Amino acid sequence: MVNVKHRVRYPPFESAKLNAEKIPIVEHSFEVDGPVIPSFRLGSEDSWLVERVVEGEHEANSQYHGKTPQIIEKQRTGWYLIPHPIHAKARRFMNIVVIILLSCLFYLFTAPIQDSLGLTVFGTGKVRLGMLDYPLLSVIVVPLMITPIALRVAANLGDLRRQKDFLANAPPNPKITVDEVKSGSKLKGKISLSETPENWTTMKLSWRVGILPPARHRVFSALGLNQDGQPPPGLTTPLPHHWEKGLDDGTGMGEDAPMQRHDVPGGVFLRPMRIMGQGGTQNLSLEGGKFELETPEGEWPGTLYGDLVRVHWEMIVNIERKVGGPLLWVFPLVVSHRTESTINEEIEISDGRTESDTL
User: Fold this and answer.
1) Overall pTM > 0.70
2) How much is the average pLDDT of 231-251?
3) Domain segments of the chain: what residues?
4) How far is 172 from 150, CA to CA, in rounded Å?
5) How far apart are CA 156 and CA 149, in angstroms?
């Protein structure tokens, strides 16, 4: 019997706003009889961490991958869309508007002081709109505040229309065959498309590896907490219709993707993995053909699925279209493990928003 310990400090949604050291490390130990997957460590103790510790002498098992969780079928297999790029632009514009608003409020607050010092002040007059008087600066600032909201509403309506059109005319699945692949080696295979609509222009292949969110119920169980009680730091209170047991950690809470149709299990927008390594890319004609993709940078373990640690590999077919934005086909991969331990402290962290994904 070999003792195995999993230790995880997974970055929650918008992890850049949190101090990683304040988030508890979730640990789970168990015993394995026979060959085991080698140890690995992604990240570091004072930051985000995904670690597997194997204690004692053991024989390496490079083929065990665990039971595929439902998150793969519901959120990482099949055809997907990319949100309208105006979402990301409107979010950045909102940050600028907030700075302008706070600056104007500070300026109005200090206007009497400036006036008493003999300094000329501007924009403190009043403008009559209807039966009420408003500060002159509000006439400038309020439209700026409304603009990003209006842009997001328009983008959401456009996304809903694209989802409806896509679901009504979903293309046939591409045929993909891949050779057996091991962590640290290239991905080789062949792809073909049975239909290529006139709207399609180019096709690009890529693959990547990342860590999926741990199952929320496993995090609570490992920390000895009641799922109906106060969540630990980094996790939020679950909301109806936004979280499903075993699917993820529940921290996205509907903010990780724009407005989606809820009659499609998992949605039609591909969520980025918050810990991720990008592999090589290759352009192909729409007729398809053979491909060979370089391995992702850094050291990564092979495919491993559990409630707490989920190492996922996937291939992405990115099809550019004349209208409607890119179309993605996501193909899960099963990658064998290395026979030696893996250490990778240089891991890429994303905020988890679909519009922040780079393909």
Assistant:
1) yes
2) 67
3) 2-55, 70-83+172-338+347-356, 88-164
4) 35
5) 11
